[in-house]
Structures are given as structure tokens and as C-alpha cells.
UniProtKB/TrEMBL annotation:
Domain Mur ligase central: 110-301
A GO cellular component entry from the record: cytoplasm
Family according to the record: Belongs to the MurCDEF family. MurF subfamily.
Pathway as given in its UniProt record: Cell wall biogenesis; peptidoglycan biosynthesis
Record protein name field: UDP-N-acetylmuramoyl-tripeptide--D-alanyl-D-alanine ligase
Residues covered by the Mur ligase N-terminal catalytic domain: 27-98
Molecular-function annotations in GO: ATP binding; UDP-N-acetylmuramoyl-tripeptide-D-alanyl-D-alanine ligase activity; UDP-N-acetylmuramoylalanyl-D-glutamyl-2,6-diaminopimelate-D-alanyl-D-alanine ligase activity
Gene name tied to this protein: murF
PANTHER family for the chain: UDP-N-ACETYLMURAMOYL-TRIPEPTIDE--D-ALANYL-D-ALANINE LIGASE
Catalysed reactions, semicolon-separated: D-alanyl-D-alanine + UDP-N-acetyl-alpha-D-muramoyl-L-alanyl-gamma-D-glutamyl-meso-2,6-diaminopimelate + ATP = UDP-N-acetyl-alpha-D-muramoyl-L-alanyl-gamma-D-glutamyl-meso-2,6-diaminopimeloyl-D-alanyl-D-alanine + ADP + phosphate + H(+)
Record-linked Pfam families: Mur_ligase, Mur_ligase_C, Mur_ligase_M
GO BP annotations, alphabetical order: cell division; cell wall organization; peptidoglycan biosynthetic process; regulation of cell shape
Amino acid sequence: MKRTLAQLAEMCGGTLTDVAAYGDVGIEGVFTDSRKPVPGSLFIPLVGERFDGHEFVQTCVEKGAAGTLWQKDHGTAPQGAVIIVEDTLVALQELASSYLKENKASIVGITGSNGKTTTKDIVDAVLSTTFKVHKTQGNFNNHIGMPLTVLSMEPDTEIVILEMGMSGRGEIEELSVIAQPDVAIITNIGESHLLQLGSRLEIARAKVEIAAGMKPGGLLIYNGDEPLINQVLAEAATKMPEGLQRYTFGLQTDNDDYPTGIMNAQSGVAFTTKQSGEVALTMPLLGTHNVVNCLAALAVARHFGVAAEQIVAGLSHLKLTGMRIEIINGVSGLTMLNDAYNASPTSMKAAVDVLEGLKGYRIKVAVLGDMLELGPQEHELHRGIGEYITPDKMNMVLAYGPLSASIAEGARQNMPAEAVHTFESKEELTRYLLENLHSRDVVLFKASRGMKLEDVVEALKIAPLQNRVD
């Protein structure tokens, strides 16, 4: 983003303290982290419960910031290139909203309980074959991260893809109002945030908030297998734009698009869909759930007129954000499926299904860790994962963490007792894997991010296996 300080003051509804001296000063972006000042950019000092960016304004200016915002209730502003605002966070969001309106790029918003980031990456892969695309990086999907994503967008961007996350009601509506999407995707409704929201219906209401800020006539693409979405869309309290178009995807044949054939392989999946006809699509992702995610991306691509051959090419070169069923080979030859970024009952069952579909391995092992923030039903939901596991899906279950003891409890209903083990430490778990696995085995790692199962994956990547069984 390149603007003058005078332009930025107008965009965010602030007042530049000295227009004559600083109005024409050029700004080449914004930043909020005082530890990483960006010369030539505007510093936005945010205020939180345990921090206040205003304390670091002078330091940032000394290190090259071309200007700063200043919140009115923080007393007398310092001398220099300062824009006075009522609230620095609101000003950041206003800057993002104004920049999007000036830029004229089309906006795709994505939310859902599971699959947001994977779907974002697939949408990016197919759209980038035809358009200049800007997308959310990392976890910049909240009320601070999304505006920063927008403001880092190049001026000639044609489509911006914005992931929208939340922890409670009202948050996605806020993001949608800022972004005003032309197209929005709801990937699914799962159990994440049950602790905060209490029920899947409330989670559905929170996700459907993405429609609140959409442009009139916008396209809402959503998982038609989930009846709660249609239920919420029919509620009188649900906010949506005039002329909202709807498009459904999923496994059921009453959706606008659904898979007509799926073939999983070790390197990815090949599939056809109702809308693609006889054209076979392939992508380097595992699992039926990712085919469903792809259906949403295909709808976006067709909406923007991406040619069929470009869609095929984009999918074949898909690159994913890390730790979403990465296929990793250790030095010993062991195959690992690393899906340790997050977990909910829905995504954990999907990962188990992926493991079940793999062929050609000596044994298949699932290392399953705690799923966090599930609320009062957490033990019941963990036990349900265990009950979902059967000997035809895998050979062994290794449960890590206090909640995952319930996974082991459920798994013992269908699995032999010697095939189910629990662990309280990652060191103990790693040692067991090194002593019992073979180079011809495959291991799935799935847990919430807070369990840090990637530590075990990293250890297995470089350590030799101790099992010499042929």
C-alpha cells in the first residue's frame, strides 16, 4: 500500500496534526509489531490488556517509521508525523476497508470449523493461474490479522482471499463487514469452539455471519451436507445481502456439485465431480474431506471464469500451508502423515479415514493427541473418536495426553488390547515409536496445535528406527 499521510488520515477518519509539514509524506505500508519496525511505514500502536504500543512510538520513529497513529485518550501526542484517532484498532480496520474499496479487487472470504486454510490454498492455486491473487498468510485471520493482510496487498491485485476465524459470536460478522466479500465459503460446521459457544447450532450461527457483510448479489458457497447452515440461513435474525446467490457442495447428490468418483493414492487423490463431468482432477492431497474442500474452490474458480484446463493445472501444482497432512519420509524410510496443526472430532475422523485408505504398508499407526476447547463434552467426544477406530482402519492406536486417554478407552471396544497404548510424555511416545516401527510402516499424527506433536515428527525424521523386523 502506497499512500500519503494525508490520504491515510482521510481513509481512517483521523486527523493529521501538521498537514503542511507531513501531509505529502509517502507511506509504504503499516506495521503493529514494535519489535519489527518497517522503515517508511506507518506504525499502528494497538492497545491490549497487557501491552500498549504507544509506549514504543518514539522507538519506532527512531528506527525509520514514517509516521504513527495516536489514540486520543492517551494524552498529548508526540511531535512529528502523527495521525490522531479515536481508537487505533478501529482505525486499522477502517484503513483496510477503505483500501479494499479503492483497490477494486474482488474479495473471497472463507470460514468454517475445519478446512479453512486448505480451502484457501486450493482457491489460491486455481485462481492464480488466471489472476493476480493475494491471500491470508499464516494465522492472520482475526480482527487484527485480516486488516494487516489487506494492507499488505499489492495495488494491482485482482482477487484477495481472506480467511476469517473466530472464537465467539459477532467476530466473523465484524470481519465480513470490513471485507465486504463478493464470494464467501463456509467449509463446514464442526465442534471447534464448543467450549465458547455451547452447541453446533451456535457455531453455525457464528459461521453464517460471513453473509452479513457480503455485497448485494454476492455468492455464498456452503457445505450442503450440513443441515444447520440452511436452518440458520432461514432464521429471521440472520443478516444477508439483497439478492444473495447460494451454491452448495458436499458428498450428497442433492448438492450443486458433488464427487462422482474418487481414487486415493499415496501421492494424492484423483476425482471427478458432477460439474467437471468426465474431466479428471488430481491434487497432491489425501482424503475424501479434501475433495469436498476442493469442490468449494472449484465453484469459486468457475464463478470467476477460470478455464477448465487452468483449473486442472492449478490443482496439480497446489502448495499447502505447513502441517496439513504433510507426507514426510524419515531417514529410516518411515512414512509420516503430519496433521498436527489443529484437531476437532470432524477433522480427526477425516484423518482416520485418510489412514484407512492408504495401501501397501506393513502396519498403519495413528498417534492421536488431545482435541482442545471442546467444552463439557470433551471426554465423550474423545471417546467417540476411539469408538470410530476399527482394525480395518489401522493396526495400532497411540493416545497422547490426558484427554486422549478417552480415545484409548473408546478404541479398546473394537481394537485388541495390545494395539492400544497411552502416553503422558512425548519422550516416552517417541521412544516407543523408535523401538516398534519399521521402515515400511505409516504413522498418522493428529492433535490440537497446543499438543505440539510436531516435536515427535521432527524426532522421527532424523532418528534411525531400532526395530529390525523384516
